[in-house]
Design a protein that fits this description.
single chain; mainly beta; 11 strands
């Protein structure tokens, strides 16, 4: 299994970015894909996830601003981030866990991780 996160960059406050997570070695029809982030000096936190049947979940801190989606034909999951704030600055990681029917935003639940992409929100 490999997960390749991309799409990070420098963006001004209130801007937007679309992050991508290209998966290989697994099927999105069987796995939950999650997005996590880790800011300097802070613990990794769950941002959003999408289950094998397409249900989506969000952390309270990003509800209404971030949207997770997937393209099963491309085996890719996207995280559209908008209304970005400086506190959204972090390395964003995508991760995968076999979907046994319970989706989670706990990092410890996920067994496969991508390498991360840096999002910097600054003027």
């Amino acid at each position: 299994v490999q997960l390749q996160a991309s799409g990070g960059g420098l963006v001004q406050p209130d801007g937007s970015l679309r992050l991508s997570c290209a998966a290989s070695g697994l099927s999105l029809d069987d796995y939950t894909i999650g997005w996590f982030r880790q800011a300097p000096g802070k613990e990794r936190e769950g941002v959003s996830c999408i289950s094998s049947n397409g249900r989506t979940y969000y952390a309270d801190s990003v509800k209404g601003r971030f949207t997770i989606s997937r393209d099963t034909a491309k085996n890719t999951v996207y995280l559209r981030t908008s209304s970005l704030k400086p506190e959204d600055t972090a390395i964003y990681y995508c991760a995968a866990v076999y979907d046994y029917g319970m989706s989670s935003l706990k990092a410890s639940e996920y067994g496969y991780w991508g390498q991360g992409t840096l999002v910097t929100v600054s003027s």
